[in-house]
Each structure stands twice: as C-alpha cells, then as structure tokens.
Write a structure and sequence with these properties.
- The structure holds three protein chains of three kinds.
- Chain A is built from twelve helices and 15 strands.
- The radius of gyration of chain A is 23 Å and the shape is globular.
- Chain A folds into two domains: about 140 residues, Response regulator (Rossmann fold), CATH 3.40.50.2300; about 200 residues, Response regulator (Rossmann fold).
- Chain B starts with a helix and ends with a helix.
- By secondary structure, chain B is mostly helical.
- Chain B has one domain.
- Chain B has 14 helices and no strands.
- Chain B is globular.
- Chain C has three domains: about 230 residues, P-loop containing nucleotide triphosphate hydrolases (Rossmann fold); about 180 residues, Rossmann fold, CATH 3.40.50.300; about 60 residues, no CATH class.
- Chain C is built from 17 helices and 20 strands.
- The chains are: A alpha/beta, B mainly alpha, C alpha/beta.
- At the A-B interface, α1, α3 and α4 of A face α2, α3 and α13 of B.
C-alpha cells in the first residue's frame, strides 16, 4: 500500500514538472535579446536606466527581452557571467547586453563560447583594443557632458564653494567623469561667478564599488554625511544608487542648506525632489536600437560606440544618449546660466577639455590651446590638478 | 529501513513546508519545482553548470567530513578556500611567465592546498595550545582571510590603474584549465572530485586513521583511555580539511573565475558545512546532497527569469531542508 | 515549621531511587540525612526543594498537603535548599548576587536598603563577606554563606544543606555549624544531608539513615557510631576465596603524588603495586580514588610528586606511553569514558587490536571479534553499536578489549550494576590474569567485594590514603570507619 502511494506521488510529481515546459515550446519566438544587469532592475540608477531602455526598445521594435539582475559575485556567489549567458542563449537570446565594466572578462569569455550570438558590453573597450572577438561590441554614452553640466550646476549653486564627488571604484571611466564634473564646476566658479579659483574645493571620495556592499565598500551614506558635516554643500554622485540624494534630503530636514546631484537614471530626482539639483542620465535606447537593428538585419560589425547627446535637445528620448534633467531644487538663475552653458557647448565654442590642463602630479595633460582627443579622454590617467582625492587606489 | 524512513520523512516535511511557503508568497509550487528541474536537467549545458558547482562542493565537503567526524566545527573552511585561491593567484602572477602552463598549474595546485592546510592548522593549533574553540578561531581567520583577499585586490594585485571589486587581472589564457569544446567544466576536475570522494570513502572504510578519528569524535574521553592521540588527530584532520578547502579555492580561481575576486569562495565553505550536516557526517550521502545543493544553486537563477521570484528562494529551500533534517533526526534520536 | 514526607517514591526511568520514604522534620531542630552515595538522599531533598517532581507520595507542611513544581514555589512555602555547588552569578559582586537572588522583593528599592540588610546578616552569623567583592573571588565556604544569607533574607523557614562540608576549611565549617545552630534556635528547621558521619554526629539532634532508596533507621542523639555505620552499610557477609599471591617485582610506584581530575583531588599519595597483586581501593565517592586510578593510567597528570613504572620515571608521559607499557584502565562510566557508543563492536576490536598498520585488516578483525565475543559471552552482533549493549555486556566488551597479559590493570567499580553471575565470572577472569602476573588495582563501593578478592586494601579519605594494609591485618569495621573519616580517633 505504501509503495503504491509513493508511486502515485512520484508519477504525479514528474508529470507536473514536464507539463509547463511543453506549453512554452509551442509558441513562436520573436527576436529575443538578453540583459545582464549588475544591480537590481529597480535601483533608480544605472541598472534601471538599462532596464527601461530595453523596455522601450521592446515596445518599439516588437522584440522580446530577458533580463537577469544583481549579476555580481557578492549578490550571486558562484554564478558566473558565462553561465548566465548560457542560460539566456538557451532561452533564445540572439544578442546579449552586459551592463557593467566588471563583466568585461566574463563577457569576453562568453562571446568566444557563443560566436553566433552578438554581445554588447557597456563601457568596455574590447572592440577598440581588439582583445574581444568579432561578435563583441562596446557601447557607452558620452557622460562627460552630463557630468560637466552637473559640475557647472553644483558650482553655480554652492555657497561654500566646497563640492563633494561620491566616486565608485577608480578606473579610466570614473576618473573621466570626476574630471568632467570638476571642469564644469571650475568653469562656473571662475568664468561665470568670477570667484577666486583658490576658494573652490572639489573633493573626490571613492567608496570602492558602484553601490554599497556592506563590509566591503565604504558606506556611501556615511561618506555623504561626512561631506555635509564638513562644510560641503553639494554632493555629486558618481555611484549607481541614490544615497547622496537621500542624505541631502535628510540634512535639509535638519535645516542644513545642502543639495545633491544623483546619476544614471532619468527619474533619479524623484527620490527627494526638494534636494535635487538635477540628474545627468544615460538614455540607452538609441544605442540599443542601433545594435538590435544591426543584429536583426545581419548588418552587424564590431563597433566601439561612444554616443553623445543630441545637442538640439539633450533630453530627447529617441536621439540623445546622454541628458541632463534639471531638478526642482535648481534656482531659475542657475537654470538660465546652465542653458547658456549648454548652448555654448552645443555650438562648439566651448570645449572644457582645452589646455592648459595638468594632471594631479603636476605633469602636463594638455598644453595651452591643445584640445583632448577622444582617446585621451577615454583613458583618463589621473585626476586633474586642483582636485582633491586619490587618482588610483593605493 | 530506519534510515529510509528518516529520508522519506525529511523529503515529505521539507516539500510540504516549501510548498506552504510558496503558496504564502502567492506562487504555484509546481511552477517553482519545474523551474528548478528545467534549470538543471533540461539540457547538457544546464547540467554542466550544475557539475561546475558540484565539483567544489564535493571536494570541500569531503574535507569537512574529516573534521566533523572528529567533532570539530571547521567554520574556518571559508577562509581556507580563500587562502587556496590566494595561493593559486600568487603562483599565477609570479610563475606563469617562467614555466610552461602545466607546471604552473601544478605548482599553483600544491600552493593552494598547502596554504589552505596551513590556514586550517592555525585553527587547530589555537585550539590545542590556547583552548580557543575552533568556531571562534575559524570565524576570526575567515575575517582575516577576507581582509587579505580585499587588500590584495585593492592593493598589490590591483589591475593597472584600476582597483575594483571585479578582482585581479585574469590569469593568462594559457593557464586557464583546458575545457573541451562546448563543455562548461573540465572532465579532469570531475575525475579529480570523484577521486577525492573515493579516497575519502576509502579512508573511512579501510584505514586505521579513519576509524580513529571517528572514535575520537564519538567519545574523546574514551579515546584518551584507549591511548589514541587526540590533539595529533585534531591537527591532522584540520590539515586535511584545509588541504581540500585549498583545492576548492584553486578550482574557484582557475576554473570558475580565472582570477582572484573578493567573493572567490562563493560561500561554498558554508554551503559544504550544510551538506555535511545534512549528510549526518557520513560520507555516503555527500555526493547526492552536494548534487541537490548544486541544483538548487544553479536552478535558482530560473526563478527571476520565469517567475519573477527572487532567486534567494533557492537558499530558503536549502535552509528548510537542513532544518527539517536536523529536526527529524533529533526527534528520532530522542524518541 | 513542621514538614512530613509520606511514602515518597521516585523513578528515574527504570531506576527506583526513592522507595516509599516517610520522614518527619520538626520545627527548631537540626536533622541529619545519612547514607552512602546513591542511597537516595539527594533525590529526596530535590523533591522536597521542588527541583524534581516526585513519582508518588505526599508532602505535608504543618499538617496540610502541599504541591509545588519549582524551587521558586517551594521557597514561597518557606523551603529553601543550599546546593552542593551554590548556583549564583560569578560575574556579579556579592551584594548584586544577593539582591538579584531575592524573589518577590521590588528590585527598585534603593541599594542602601540591601546593603543594610546584607551587613545585618553578616554580623548576625559572624560571616566575613564584604558586599562589593566579586562572587568569583569567594571561596566555596563564603559562597555558601552568601547563599544562606540569601535564603534567610528570602524568608526560608526550612533550609536544606546538601553535603555542605565538602571543600570548605575546618574554620569555615565551624562558622557554618554555628550559624545553623543559631537558625535552629530561632525556630527554623534545618536538614543536613551528608555521608560524613562526624558532621552529622556533631551537629544533628536526630538522624534518618537511607540505604538503597529506603529509610532504614531513625536515631536520636546521643548517637552510637557503630549503630549508624551498621544502618548505613548493612550486615557484612564473610569474605570469599582469594587467590594466592606470589610476590613479584614492583610494577608501579607513586611517590607523594598530588593531582586533580575533574573536581576530585588526591594529595601526596604514595603507593606501590607488585606483579600479581590485587589491590582493592575503598573510599566514598569523590575521596580521591578516581584521580588516583587515572594518574596511574596516565590520564591525569600529577602536579606534584613522581610516578615510576618498572623503576623508570614516567611522570608527565602521555596516556599512549602508559598503554604501550601495558597499563590498561577500565573506567566505571563505561559509555562515557570506556566505549565509543556509536561505533560497532568490530570497530572497537579494530581500535584495540588493529596494531599500527595503516590499513585495517577487517577480515582478521572480524574473526577476532567473533572469537572474543564468544570467549567473553558478549551477546550482540559484530556490527551492533556499543550503546545498544546491556551493562553487563558493555563491561565484558571492555574486558575483552584488553590484551592477554597486561602489566597493570586499573579498574573502577568493575562489577557495578552487574548481576552476581556476571560479577563472579569477571572476577574469575581477573584473578586468572593476576595469577599470570598482571597487577590489578580496582576501586569498589562494595567493601564485601574488596575484602573478598584483594590482597591489600587502600582506603581514601578526602584525597589522602588514610589506610594501606594487607588484607589480613585490617577489618571491615576499620575500613568503614576510615572511609567515613573516623580514623583519627
């Protein structure tokens, strides 16, 4: 009797296992692409910007997308990028986007394993250096401009002249963005507000990763608080999550007049509008559209794509890959100055990467009148003279 | 027969509990089970990823069998894995260019095992000489090992110009362990894991040492009366466990990540502790439980993909399994 | 307050610890409860103090039946018990421990109130504890004093003391006894539990004697010690056959050895045993013979004095060294110290006879196991776990693990819990070993057994060898007195 019951149980169990898989196989598949997000899909930051671009593309092109979020060894111990790529490919993905610099090694390995699948690695340079295979391209937005505007707005707003930059880990990209913010801030301070360059303090504190990992990185909440407690009144966030803004809002409730500028995601200001000066954000949709169309039509070629803003309207969701959305806390005067600043950059009359500029150790970055090449900006070797904070990890 | 009854009880209770938990969350348990099944058995490649987790779990669990048999709680196994990975990475950094890949891999292997064993022996020495419980010394040494790994990654071994959680620069491709086309794990590693399992079983079945550590673990006072060296066996078992944990670290560094990353152990040390506890400290169930855990581990990635569930549910199921087993076994023993 | 225990029974599983005990404790009197270890004294007192529920019977306080199920409830009725190991809080100071230990007292009272109370009590009893001293620095005697003060302050009218004189100095004993007399004269009822005859004789005005779970005697002061002893130990049957001793060379010599094992200590003991000699060791539990046997076996290490094996100094050597020299030990708690409960019989034989080879010759071991099990008539399978064997079989298993010709065999209560048949068989076997030259030293609670088989008798009292005599030169009476601490007279 016991045997019989267990037999029935077993048969029922396996039948249940097999049933849904039959159902799935029947459907006709549209073009599918996969998305590996380093953080949670709803992080109000970097990963959410990607997630929403994918949703927009899905709607517009009638394709389907799959995603796996929190792809990092701390959140998913023992899970590797090639393993997840295998999974996405087995579910029909023909193109895979990996949205973190940290997936560089893994995505390169996976691309070699799946030569018939296309890969887009965000923020990498394998297509530039030729280290990756033909099916691996790179995509990045020219966030320098967004960060310049952020720095500009920060310095226009600051009362104390002390601006904090909440940096993630240290690499070419993050140095590039910190430097851009600094250049925007310096321009506002010296050229627009006509103040003494010596009174501008621009300090970078690196937490060690793109978001807080308790016990491993420095705590961004703590770092931001330290900024505000020591006289800084604007913090520009370079990390993927919104701690800087949250802390600024708290400090405002306690009567301190401080602001923050979040990063990455269009609607990041919503967390605490009253403290938000604006958001430099990525709009991945144009880049995604480009690569998905290329993959669909078979016109794929290995590309290293560094997409800038659409200067006619930097906030156009279909054309501008980088934007800056002013926040409720920005004053009308600053707003006017910012619009003017953007106009100058759009016309080409203003290029902040123009010499003389010096690296932090005093060596020359750009001679007088020299303008930086893309490659010089991309591979930013150090922070610039005038910025406080380490250029590389000790 | 008694054992079969225990297993059936555990399976029944944990299945029911899991189903209950899932229904509370508002998910159909059938979907979840089928997701796990498909994520692990639906294709050779899926199963290959399961094997890729199974290998380090089995190797590490075998080491823990020795310490558990002695009644030692080798919590420090995580740190021992990390030290193994550190040893591997050190050899790769400094010797990869000097010798041919096979030799480098061999030296790295020995180095990993050696460092793991030394790290474990430290715990053992603290216990014998200063009477520090191995749980405390193990936790402490885990902390130190993690700090060491982070320091290396952010300090001396950082990528040029970059210090990031993504770890050190990958090892040169020449010293990635060769994997056959289309495979996701090295058959050599699988054979090695089976060999470790076999040798472990053989030690427990046939050798005097296997018997003696079981004796000490069962009753250390009687062991003393019978003139069995307790401290010596403590050290030896710790060293063996550390050796195998180091091997696990080697696997993680060479086969899985090809570099040193902060979370290099993937918590497999803690997971292995659970495997061995679930196995009731006997070697026979270890490969099967490790397989089950590897399936839960790999299959859990299906949950967000198909059901929009958090993949930590896999961990919840593991937890339910362990707790039910301990509960049932305890209940049986007392009744 | 008057307390009557009527027909108290207590079962611990199959063990019948109290078998229908009826006693009466009168107000203002110091009562003694006397008996050997295991006679049921502690069980009875734990029932009275609410630590253990009784299986049957009645407790009457001032004539009315009462029921309580915890020490706290018992204390509400006024019954308090002072434990062998006072349960206090080592990390606190004396006054803190005192304050926390008072139930029903609002803790928010100013600490001055408690300090005053504390100092009053110390003055009254002539104790010398300062309130602010940490409990961990107190001696056992001072902890007792603290506990007595706590009980008195908590309103105890009936105070039980379980072996209070173990581990305290003579001076402290005097202070304690004075305090107890004072408490009795103020109308409290005191019960002193002890196996030490002299304590009871000095302090109590009436005594109940327990033996094997029954109350076998009720005597009022003045006491005759001989009478009490006879109640305690019962009638002694005449000795049975002893094997003939051919004096051999000295196997083991202890030279003024002091050591401790667990809570028992031995102090400056000198001892010698020869080949073929059987030495019986007598002593109440905790008197030092436990340590003595373990020092001889190399399990406990002397902190003073030396140990010689065949004239070679072996002080501080490991147990394995002793074992290799042919010294074997059979402890009294077989499952806790002698056997591996979850290992099979075959595993045990492999450990004992597997030699030093790496691999276990399982075939040979199995044959050997079967042969041994038959010789020692052990009922069980080679694969059964040791824990599953009966007591007698466990003892036989332990003996069957010994080699054919040990140099020195140390046994602790070798026949404890065995039926007469098994005990006889075991002694036959042991005497046979002695005839072949093995020196045997065994301890036993059963003086009959000691006198029946020993060539020499060694008696322990409070850690010292109080008597060491050829069996022909001493008497059961003398040994009884010695182990009860009456040898000084």
């Amino acid at each position: 009797m016991k045997k019989l019951t267990s037999m029935i149980f077993l048969v029922g169990f396996f039948y249940a296992l097999l049933l849904p898989s039959e159902a799935i196989r029947a459907a006709e598949e549209p073009f599918t692409f996969g998305l590996l997000l380093v953080g949670p899909y709803n992080d109000h930051g970097w990963s959410q910007a990607h997630f929403e671009a994918a949703k927009a593309v899905e709607k517009e092109l009638g394709v389907r997308f799959l995603y796996i979020d929190k792809v990092n060894p701390a959140d998913r111990p023992g899970v590797t990028v090639p393993q997840l790529v295998d999974e996405l490919v087995s579910r029909g993905a023909k193109l895979i986007v990996a949205n973190s610099d940290d997936m560089k090694d893994g995505i390169r390995e996976a691309a070699r394993q799946h030569l018939k699948v296309y890969f887009v690695h965000i923020s990498g340079d394998d297509a530039l250096t030729g280290k990756g295979p033909e099916n691996l391209s790179n995509l990045m937005g020219r966030m320098e401009y967004g960060k310049m505007i952020a720095g500009f707005v920060a310095a226009m707003t600051s009362r104390t002249g002390k601006i904090g930059y909440l940096g993630p880990l240290i690499n070419d990209e993050t140095r590039r963005l910190a430097v851009s913010s600094y250049l925007g801030a310096r321009y506002a301070w010296e050229k627009v507000r006509k103040k003494n360059p010596k009174d501008l303090v621009f300090q970078v504190s690196w937490i060690g990763f793109w978001f807080n990992i308790p016990g491993v990185t420095a705590d961004p909440t703590q770092v931001t608080q330290n900024f505000f407690n020591s006289g800084f009144d604007v913090v520009i966030s370079g990390i993927d999550t919104t701690e800087a803004l949250t802390v600024a809002a708290q400090k405002r409730k306690q009567g301190q007049e401080v602001w923050a500028i979040p990063y990455d995601y269009r609607n990041a200001c919503n967390e605490a509008p009253e403290a938000c000066l604006g958001t430099p954000y990525f709009n991945w949709k144009p880049g995604y559209m480009h690569f998905i169309k290329a993959a669909q039509s078979g016109q794929w070629k290995r590309e290293w794509l560094w997409l800038g803003p659409d200067w006619t309207d930097i906030n156009d969701p279909d054309t501008s890959s980088v934007g800056f959305l002013p926040g409720p806390a920005m004053s009308p005067e600053v707003r006017a100055a910012m619009d003017d600043f953007i106009k100058q950059m759009a016309s080409g009359s203003l290029n902040l990467f123009t010499g003389p500029l010096y690296y932090q150790d005093g060596s020359v970055f750009l001679r007088k009148g020299e303008q930086a090449t893309d490659e010089q900006i991309w591979y930013m070797k150090q922070l610039l003279q005038g910025m406080i904070g380490p250029s590389s990890a000790k | 027969m008694d054992r079969v009854r225990t297993i059936l009880t555990v399976v029944a209770i944990s299945t029911l509990t899991t189903c209950g938990a899932l229904l509370i969350v508002g998910t159909n348990p059938v979907d979840v089970f089928s997701a796990f099944f498909k994520g692990t058995f639906s294709s050779w490649r899926h199963f290959a990823h399961v094997i890729n987790v199974w290998i380090p779990l089995v190797i590490c669990s075998c080491g823990l069998l020795f310490t558990f048999s002695l009644g030692l709680w080798n919590i420090g196994v995580e740190g021992q894995i990390m030290l193994g990975a550190v040893g591997t990475a050190w050899v790769m950094r400094h010797l990869a260019d000097m010798t041919n890949p096979t030799v480098t891999l061999g030296i790295a292997f020995l180095m990993a095992c050696l460092l793991g064993a030394i790290w474990a022996t430290l715990s053992g020495i603290l216990k014998i000489k200063s009477n520090v419980h191995e749980i405390f010394s193990g936790l402490g040494l885990n902390f130190v090992a993690q700090a060491l790994v982070l320091w290396l990654i952010f300090g001396p071994w950082k990528r040029p110009g970059v210090a990031s959680m993504s770890g050190t620069r990958p090892f040169p491709a020449a010293v990635w362990f060769p994997v056959p086309e289309g495979w996701r794990f090295s058959p050599i590693a699988l054979v090695a894991a089976l060999l470790v399992m076999g040798i472990t079983a053989w030690i427990f079945i046939s050798t005097r040492w296997g018997l003696l550590i079981r004796a000490v673990g069962n009753n250390s006072r009687a062991a003393e009366v019978h003139g069995i060296s307790i401290n010596g066996n403590f050290l030896l078992a710790m060293a063996v466990a550390g050796f195998l944990a180091g091997m696990t670290g080697y696997y993680q560094a060479v086969f899985v990540y090809h570099r040193l990353i902060p979370a290099i152990s993937s918590n497999y040390g803690y997971l292995s502790l659970l495997v061995v506890m679930l196995a009731q400290y006997r070697w026979t169930p270890v490969p099967f439980i490790a397989l089950l855990f590897a399936m839960l581990h790999v299959g859990s990635i299906q949950l967000p993909l198909t059901l929009n569930l958090d993949s930590s549910l896999g961990g919840v199921i593991q937890g339910i399994l362990v707790l039910t087993t301990l509960g049932v076994v305890h209940f049986r023993r007392n009744s | 307050m008057n307390v009557i225990l009527r027909n108290i029974h207590k079962f611990y599983g199959p063990v019948h610890a109290n078998r229908g005990i009826s006693v009466t404790f009168r107000e203002g009197t110091i009562h003694g409860i006397l008996g050997e270890n295991g006679a049921g004294k502690s069980t009875l007192m734990k029932i009275l103090a609410g630590y253990t529920p009784r299986s049957d019977g009645q407790i009457l306080i001032n004539g009315a039946p009462v029921d309580y199920s915890s020490p706290g409830e018992a204390l509400k009725y006024g019954i308090g018990m002072l434990y062998q190991d006072p349960l206090d809080f080592p990390a606190l100071t004396a006054i803190e421990s005192f304050t926390i230990g008072l139930p029903e007292t609002p803790i928010c009272l100013p600490s001055k109130h408690f300090v005053k109370l504390f100092e009053e009590l110390t003055r009254r009893f002539h104790f010398s504890i300062r309130p602010e001293i940490p409990v961990e620095y107190l001696t056992v005697g001072e902890r007792q004093q603290l506990e007595i003060m706590r009980l008195v302050a908590a309103g105890a009218q009936f105070i039980i003391l379980d072996e209070p004189t173990t581990g305290i100095s003579i001076r402290q004993k005097e202070i304690l006894f004075d305090a107890l007399r004072q408490l009795a004269s103020s109308g409290r009822t005191i019960v002193l539990v002890s196996h030490k005859l002299e304590d009871v004789v000095n302090l109590c005005s009436e005594v109940y004697i327990l033996r094997q779970g029954k109350c076998v005697g009720h005597v009022a002061a003045p006491f005759s010690k001989a009478e009490l002893l006879e109640y305690m130990f019962g009638q002694i049957p005449p000795p049975v056959s002893r094997c003939i001793l051919e004096k051999g060379a000295t196997v083991l010599w202890m030279d003024r050895v002091s050591a401790s094992w667990k809570k028992t200590t031995m102090i400056r003991c000198s001892f010698r045993v020869r080949q073929g000699e059987i030495v019986g060791v007598a002593g109440l539990e905790g008197s030092g013979q436990e340590t003595f046997l373990r020092v001889a076996a190399g399990i406990a290490t002397p902190h003073e004095g030396d140990l010689y094996l065949d004239r070679e100094k072996v002080t501080g050597r490991k147990r394995s060294y002793f074992k290799n020299r042919g010294i074997y030990f059979v402890p009294n708690d077989r499952l806790a110290e002698g056997l591996f409960p979850d290992l099979s019989l075959m595993d045990h034989y492999a450990i004992a006879f597997g030699g030093s080879s790496w691999l276990i010759p399982w075939k040979t071991i199995e044959e050997l196991a079967r042969e041994r099990m038959e010789t020692f008539s052990i009922k069980g399978q080679v694969v059964s776990k040791a824990a599953g064997l009966s007591g007698g079989n466990q003892q036989r298993l332990l003996l069957s693990l010994l080699p054919a010709n040990p140099r020195l065999l140390l046994l602790e209560d070798p026949t404890r819990g065995l039926d007469v048949e098994s005990a006889t068989w075991i002694w036959k076997y042991l005497q046979n070993l002695a005839q072949k030259g093995t020196a045997i030293v065994f301890s036993s609670r059963d003086l009959d057994e000691v006198f029946a088989v020993s060539h020499r008798i060694t008696a322990f009292f409070e850690g010292r060898i109080a008597l060491d005599a050829e069996v022909n030169t001493t008497t059961v009476d003398e040994v009884q007195k010695t182990i009860a601490g009456l040898f000084r007279e």
